[in-house]
């Protein structure tokens, strides 16, 4: 072919440095944003952080209707003169279970204590020879998070060989002492043994105790397979006596170590707050979502006086500082738009709980705020909304839906809440099967199949009807 020059017109999308920075900041969580800004403040002399005034801390949504021109332009307006500023210290805004000190200050940092530390603490307070104490340490090291001993005697003897020569009998004696530590039954090898140790702590004259110990020692498997009448006949017990024994068994902890998790509680700082004021749900952003950064006027004034090389450097830093400040503003405005859209869509959830959750997908919010779905996805990742019903990640409010008999739709979250409520209200002696749950939901206007019910039930870690039929042991 003969070489030739051709002129073509085309369109392409190029991400400018400013746009790249805005996208990157948008997907950062609050802790990550703080680290990013600290690094920028250290690296850029043109940037400085302003001290927030006492009254400043949130970006408020206007209580009145937004002006039509602002709505048409897609710009958010913020009311800086709200007559009743939202008080973040109000009891409605405090997270459920949040701990504060006696003076109402910030919660004190507590070092989490795992099961091993808890048991070692008790071991150190127990009077015993050093030989037995070493065996106790080896036993505690071999206990899993559920509280069960997972190593056999041979492995424990080998672990202790560098210190002492012990036999299985010595290990068993110390293990019996460890089983009496808190939580009671820890260090057991089987479920039957664990429950029996816990029953051993009851008073000898406790009604139904003898029968309960017989059940956990010999009939745990039968308890899962047989009905009440068969077990009463097998144990030669009257129904009333059996019920008392069963109540004792149900009061025990099958996993004694579960209450001592190795990881401490994880705290999240909400990025936005939703509160009902004057009959309307309003949204505000936390103050840290829009950090107050500004240009250092002293260094900016040196640009005109500096040498060429220094002036070029300062101009570049000044431009980067302006980009960062603008990107932070864009991030805050975008988060506020998305939070408002979510709250408007899920008002029924805020009013009535999970059963009021409506189907919502990224496309719905993207169309309402005039942004791309990928942008909404970035905004909703690791961002948290505080509501009177708790603090939830933005993504919690999104779910697919199933059709209803009237042509509408119900969200998966609402259907799960309905399934859980039906199971909580069922009779322990005749639990509802997945098919029964599906029929009951269909009767209430929710068109859902048995397989869908099974999927939702498993997602909530609820046992099947056969497992729930263990005489009410759920």
List the keywords.
474 residues; alpha+beta; Arc Repressor Mutant, subunit A; 3 domains; 5-stranded mixed β-sheet; two-stranded antiparallel sheet; 9 strands; extended
* Biggest β-sheet description: 5 strands, mixed
Described by the principal axes of the CA atoms, the overall outline is extended
Order of helices and strands: HHEEHHHHHHHHHHEEEHHHHHEEEEHHHH
Question: Number of DSSP helices?
Answer: 21
Description:
The chain is an alpha+beta fold. It has three domains: 16-96 and 265-354 and 372-393, no CATH class; 115-259, no CATH class; 401-468, Orthogonal Bundle (Arc Repressor Mutant, subunit A). 46% of the residues lie in helices and 7% in strands. It has 21 helices and nine strands. A five-stranded mixed beta sheet has the order 2-4-3-6-7, covered by helices on one side. A two-stranded antiparallel ribbon has the order 1-5. A two-stranded antiparallel sheet has the order 8-9. Strand 6 and strand 7 form a beta hairpin.
């Amino acid at each position: 072919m003969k070489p030739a020059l051709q002129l073509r017109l085309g369109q392409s999308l190029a991400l400018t440095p400013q746009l790249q920075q805005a996208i990157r900041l948008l997907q950062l969580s609050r802790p990550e944003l703080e680290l990013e800004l600290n690094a920028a403040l250290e690296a850029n002399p043109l940037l400085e952080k302003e001290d927030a005034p006492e009254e400043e801390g949130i970006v408020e949504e206007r209580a009145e209707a937004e002006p039509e021109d602002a709505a048409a332009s897609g710009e958010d307006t913020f009311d800086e003169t709200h007559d009743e500023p939202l008080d973040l210290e109000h009891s409605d805004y405090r997270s459920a279970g949040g701990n504060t000190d006696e003076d109402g200050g910030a919660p004190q940092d507590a070092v989490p204590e795992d099961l091993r530390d808890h048991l070692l603490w008790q071991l150190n307070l127990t009077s015993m020879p050093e030989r037995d104490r070493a065996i106790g340490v080896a036993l505690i090291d071999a206990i899993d998070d559920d509280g069960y001993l997972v190593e056999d005697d041979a492995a424990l003897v080998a672990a202790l060989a560098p210190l002492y020569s012990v036999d299985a009998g010595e290990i068993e004696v110390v293990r019996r002492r460890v089983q009496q530590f808190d939580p009671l039954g820890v260090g057991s090898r089987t479920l039957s043994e664990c429950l029996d140790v816990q029953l051993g702590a009851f008073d000898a004259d406790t009604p139904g105790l003898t029968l309960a110990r017989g059940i956990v020692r010999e009939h745990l498997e039968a308890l899962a397979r047989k009905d009440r009448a068969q077990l009463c006949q097998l144990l030669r017990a009257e129904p009333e006596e059996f019920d008392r024994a069963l109540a004792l068994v149900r009061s025990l902890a099958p996993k004694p170590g579960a209450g001592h998790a190795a990881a401490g509680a994880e705290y999240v700082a909400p990025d936005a707050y939703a509160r009902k004021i004057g009959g309307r749900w309003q949204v505000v952003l936390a103050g840290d979502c829009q950090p107050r950064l500004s240009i250092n006027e002293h260094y900016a004034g040196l640009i005109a006086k500096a040498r060429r090389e220094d002036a070029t450097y300062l101009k570049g830093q000044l431009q980067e500082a302006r980009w960062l400040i603008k990107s932070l503003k864009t991030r805050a405005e975008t988060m506020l738009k998305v939070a408002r859209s979510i709250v408007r869509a899920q008002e029924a959830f805020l009013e009535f709980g999970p059963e009021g959750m409506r189907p919502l997908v990224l496309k719905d919010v993207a169309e309402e705020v005039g942004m791309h779905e990928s942008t909404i996805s970035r905004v909703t990742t690791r961002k948290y909304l505080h509501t009177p019903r708790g603090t939830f990640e933005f993504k919690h409010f999104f779910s697919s839906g199933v059709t209803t008999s009237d042509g509408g739709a119900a969200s998966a979250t609402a259907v799960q809440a309905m399934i859980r409520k039906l199971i909580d209200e069922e009779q322990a002696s005749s639990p509802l099967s997945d098919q029964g749950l599906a029929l009951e939901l269909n009767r209430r206007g929710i068109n859902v199949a048995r397989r869908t019910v099974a999927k939702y039930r498993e997602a909530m870690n609820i046992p099947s009807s056969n497992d729930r039929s263990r005489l009410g042991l759920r």
